[in-house]
Write a structure and sequence with these properties.
- The chain has one helix at 15-24, and strands at residues 3-5, 27-34, 39-43, 49-52, 57-62, 65-69, 73-77, 83-88, 93-100.
- By secondary structure, it is mainly beta.
- It has a single domain, classed as Sandwich (Jelly Rolls).
- It has a five-stranded antiparallel sheet, covered by helices on one side.
- A hairpin with a 2-residue loop joins strand 5 (57-62) and strand 6 (65-69).
């Protein structure tokens, strides 16, 4: 697992551009806002997901590694991978939660 950074060749980092990019990759996309203090304990999903951040800072842990996601960052979490996540700092995280269409 590696953090994928927003590529300026895709255009300006905006919600609509990120959404368009994820849809082109075959994902269904839902926008969420997570407040400071939000924690998601270890869990997994039956399908591939890509967690993305538009604003704020998200800490994710999986496969014995820690990932810090900030604006423009995306992390592919493959199906059945146990992971956790939490909002870091005092700013809410605005995220596009992308689920791979089967």
């Amino acid at each position: 697992m590696e953090i994928e950074k927003w590529n300026n060749s895709w255009g300006e980092l905006t919600e609509s551009n990120m959404r368009e990019r994820l849809i082109k990759e075959g994902f269904s996309v839902v926008r969420y806002t997570y407040q400071p203090g939000t924690v998601f304990e270890d869990h997994s999903h039956p399908v591939d997901k890509k967690d993305t951040v538009l604003t704020g800072t998200f800490r994710m842990r999986a496969l014995g590694k820690e990932f810090i996601l900030e604006a423009g960052d995306m992390l592919l979490v493959t199906a059945k991978t146990v992971h956790s996540a939490e909002v870091v700092g005092d700013e809410p995280v605005v995220s596009l939660d992308a689920t791979k269409l089967v």
